[in-house]
Amino acid sequence: MAIVDTVKFMTNPARVVPSPVLKRLTDYYTTVQGLTAEGVEWVSSSRLADVLGLTSSTVRQDLSHLDFAGVSKRGYRTSGLEKALACALGADRIWNMLVVGAGNLGRALVLHPEFRRRGFMIRAVCDSDVFKTGLKLRTLEVQRMNQIPQAVKEHAIDIGVIAVPEDAAQGVADLLVEAGVKGLLNLTPTHITAPEGVAVTDARILASLQELTHTLMGK
Amino acid sequence: MAIVDTVKFMTNPARVVPSPVLKRLTDYYTTVQGLTAEGVEWVSSSRLADVLGLTSSTVRQDLSHLDFAGVSKRGYRTSGLEKALACALGADRIWNMLVVGAGNLGRALVLHPEFRRRGFMIRAVCDSDVFKTGLKLRTLEVQRMNQIPQAVKEHAIDIGVIAVPEDAAQGVADLLVEAGVKGLLNLTPTHITAPEGVAVTDARILASLQELTHTLMGK
DNA sequence: TAGATTGTTAATCGATTAACAATC
DNA sequence: TAGATTGTTAATCGATTAACAATC
After folding, report:
1. What is the 3-state secondary structure of B125-167?
2. How far, in Å, CA of A179 to CA of A173, rounded?
3. Is any Cβ of chain A less than 8 angstroms from the Cβ of B213?
4. Domain regions of chain A by residue span
């Protein structure tokens, strides 16, 4: 029996946050950030549920994945909850990014101050178009594609951002993986394949629009 | 018995495509577009499954929501499948959009040719910053916020795009709804509330990044 | 204390997968 | 025909919701 318990104990901690929960954690995070900014000190699961269109049950289940406990009769202390969420999402540290593609989307990312403000630091930008080489985006000069490996090493890049035309996406992904990035943010509509150890997330901007238009047609 | 059958028949056609299926339909669409472009004429559910990391069972279930049938032993004809997907997603028509916010993100959308190419026509841009009024983005002049109602009527705007700072997002959403748009694309991390009849989709760029960093921390 | 809210278990609901008869 | 692939039903799996004891 003791052995069984031990096994249980040993397998449990490797608990993965299920994907729908993870998506909601990001929602809680922005909401709670807003509340602390307003000076609200306590929030209940039902209040969060109301704001985000969920049930209080879902909220409590979700927050139980965090290393943070609420208080009976009071709810969750916003300051602690914010910190716990930031910690779970990696929002309490700095992430180094390299953007490939200096087109409109790539430039917008580099110039958008929100990313920096939230710890997503764009350290380098590359583009295959040699006429863009040397172009200045804020403090960064657009580099050649063959500079990717060196840039990844030099700046300890965690995340490669794919902001190139659709048909170049997989090739760029391969280059970034080869250079040693641990994660990819894919801004193109293409499905990207990467080896086991490399995480890929799709920004799905076009997909969002298409989901929206699908819905609009039913009206 | 006949009555029961009739009721079943009458309730069924109002079938809604479940959200996870809808998300995958956009993936099938880009994949099949690629295949037709390459000249591939037939594709099987298992081929699609391989490319997108799904099971063939899921693919067949999903495609059964379309008004299009495969052929035993051959699979799905890519040309017909592409058309059926385009039709389901509203990708076979033109959608009129108004962008609020002429910052980096808003400008990128207006200038990005992919949206136009896919039928998402940005007809007007507004910004609350009067110093931006009159600024030219391609063929469009940035307009004042109070021009929103007129612009929506004049261009028969279907979709309002929210590309403003986070704390202005809900206010802009309210203005757009008031002006009569049927759908909202929210590019901010904020949760937006809108009345029943108005569809909202979140682009979740920052959320995608945070999901990614959460995953990276486990490594 | 009394009442409100958490944390958690159990029940329900929905989505994914397996399996297989129909079929070209 | 024989073999491969669909469409669909049934089984499994996972996520959401309901319910309630624990608690501050």
Report:
1. EECCCHHHCCCEECCEEEECHHHHHHHHHHCCCCEEEECCCHH
2. 10
3. yes
4. 2-89, 95-208
SS3 A43: strand
A58 touches strand D (CB under 7 A): yes
Which of chain B's residues have a Cβ under 8 Å away from the Cβ of A118?
A: 206
Q: Quick one: tokens of B32?
A: 């099949």
| Radius of gyration in angstroms for the set of CA atoms belonging to chain B, rounded to a whole number | 21
Fold annotation for A2-89? Arc Repressor Mutant, subunit A (1.10.10)
pLDDT tens readout for residues B16-73: 899 999 999 999 999 999 999 999 999 999 999 999 999 999 999 999 999 999 999 9
Six token digits for residue B28: 């099938």
Query: H or E element: which one contains A124?
Result: strand A120-126
Cβ of residue B36 closer than 8 Å to a chain A Cβ: no
Query: Number of helices (H) and strands (E), helices first, in chain B?
Result: 10, 9
- Domain covering A95-208, topology: Rossmann fold (3.40.50)
Kindly determine whether the C-beta of residue B56 is less than 7 Å away from any atom of nucleic acid strand D: yes
A213: chain B residues, CB-CB within 8 Å: 89-91, 95, 158-159, 183
Can you state the angle between helices B104-111 and A104-111, rounded to 10 degrees?
A: 180
Option in A91, A108, A208 nearest B108 (CB): A108
- Cross-chain residue pair A30–B191, CB shorter than 8 Å: yes
| Structure-token pair, residue A82 | 């914010």
The pLDDT tens digits of the residues spanning A156-212 come to 999 999 999 999 999 999 999 999 999 999 999 999 999 999 999 999 999 999 999
Which nucleotide shows the minimum CA-to-C1' distance to residue B23?
C15
Task: Using CB atoms within 10 Å of the CB of residue A139, give its burial: 0 to 12 exposed, 13 to 18 middle, 19+ buried.
Answer: exposed
